Amino acid sequence: MSQPAVSATTAAATPAAKVSRKIRRAGRAAPPRTPSELPEPGPNRLFAAAVLPPSAVIDRARVTVNLAESPLGWLVRRGMVDARQFEAGERLRADFTRAQLAPRTTMAWDAGPTGRGPRGAPEGMDATTAQLAAKRRFEAAVGAVGGGLSDVLWRVVCTGEGLETAERALGWPARAGKVVLLLALDRLGDFYQLR
Fold it and tell me: How far from 143 is each of 8, 47, 105, 114, 151, CA to CA, in Å?
């Protein structure tokens, strides 16, 4: 018994065919964006085209990045933080993100407590080696900065709080957070041996 022939238009309309076309299109490199093709900047948006390095993705990708999305990006755009301090802060934030130290915002779907019998839940998964290495690097960097300076560094750089919010939370006077943040970023740059 033979299957009925499927017309080309019917085959192209199936969900699998649509998905395969999207995958083929996504595999092609996007043409480079010129500055005129970037979205319109606004009061809280500063866009730049960036090419991710091959280590970050399987293949090179061109993305549009909002440089003003973090308080540190906002400070560097206004000339309050220099390039060395900015790079030190971004390294710390990258390790904070890789180590998954941020609080969870959704439910944890991890396995429940393990049981001893055959019906007990399986053993929980261990943290990856990269995650543990990032956590060690983060803790070493924060330890090198010092206890008094690491509070504002953690709040502004890692969790993305604004300087005013961090100052209020720490009980500091207005504009004291910027001075302490700059000192912390300088010590962090020394720890990472940046020039």
Answer: 64, 34, 27, 35, 11
Structure confidence by residue, pLDDT tens digits, 41-94: 555 555 555 554 544 444 445 656 565 578 898 898 889 999 999 999 999 999
* Domains in the chain, number: 1
Domain holding 85, by residue range, is 70-102+128-195
Q: What is the pLDDT of residues 124-161, one digit of tens each?
A: 566 788 899 999 999 999 999 998 899 999 999 999 99
Q: How far apart are CA 96 and CA 141, in angstroms?
A: 11
| Residue that is written with structure tokens 């964006």 in the block | 33
User: Does residue 43 form part of some domain?
Assistant: no
Does residue 58 sit within a domain? no
* DSSP category for residue 42: B
Instruction: Give pTM, 2 decimals.
Output: 0.61
**89: its two tokens:** 């802060």
Q: Is residue 84 part of a domain?
A: yes
122: left (phi > 0), else alpha (psi -120 to 50), else beta? beta
Contact 151, 169 (CB under 8 A): no
Residue that has been written with the tokens 């010092």 in this structure: 146
**3-state DSSP call for residue 48?**
strand
